[in-house]
Fold this protein.
Amino acid sequence: MLYWLNRLDGEAQVLLDPNTLSDDGTVALGGTAIDPQGRYLAYGLSQGGSDWTTWHVRDIATGEDLDETITWVKFSGAAWTHDGAGFFYSRYDAPTSELQDVNEFQKLYYHRLGTPQSEDELILDFPNEPKWGASASVTDDGRYLVVSVWRDTTRTNRFYYQDLTDPSATIVELIDSFDAAYGFIDNDGTRFWFETNHGAPKSKVIEIDIATGDRHELIPETDNPIESVSTLSDRFYVTYLQDAKNQVEHFALDGSDRQIVELPGIGSIGGFSGKRSDRDTFYVFTSFTTPTTIYRYDCATGTSTIFRQPDVNIDCDRFVTAQVFYTSKDGHASRCL
């Protein structure tokens, strides 16, 4: 279920309850996207386990759906423009047979609220590449459309961008070969930041200046694989997998000043997402002795405080999780939790 609060100490209100979407439970929530102003929720519904999703838009304050229906969407989310006037999404042409046709020639569109899908603007397609698809996002400053172009089920991708402030601007190829996997993180003007495994199997962070073409490394690869990267409080927050547990580190935007986040213990985390201007964030922490707990993290002080905690019938303080390193009988270093 999705809830929303108008302030952190407010009362949670139900925004969307998937359990009420169908009597037989065969309709599932297939994706969500909230516009930058926090007014609308775009959400996709799928039926009977299908990958096809139909997207709708809900007014968050009223809980009522707008008269928007976007069909034949598959392998796509929604990316709102900064003004909340509409969103980008990818879809296929209507199939002859919904469950038997081969999915080819995915196209990227822009849907403006209050208009029928038939009037959606075609942004990008690949008429000579039936297996290519596109996943769109919009930079937090609202200026750029950023498009990850993928093919088949390989983990490599290309990246394109378009200046949304210039009506005459066309889509520009920024990364024009399927040589590695690239994940867009954020931008500062024309400086675009990516996580990539190009020449770094465990991933690194690079910067590409779209104005000059300059490309250089900001955060190098380490022995610990990168699981996610975000920007918060004008710093990079990087989640690593280290010795079967998560570790979070943060860096200045030039890759310097590495610092380690003190987590509640040895376990797994998810979160540390937000915008570069945010001064706090949230994350979830789980361990063998701690049920999934939501923490609020203050970026300035580096302190974590419990925001939501499940009520379980066990005294977790009576148990500890410890990590022990030892040398096995054959002389190889080993570890256990």
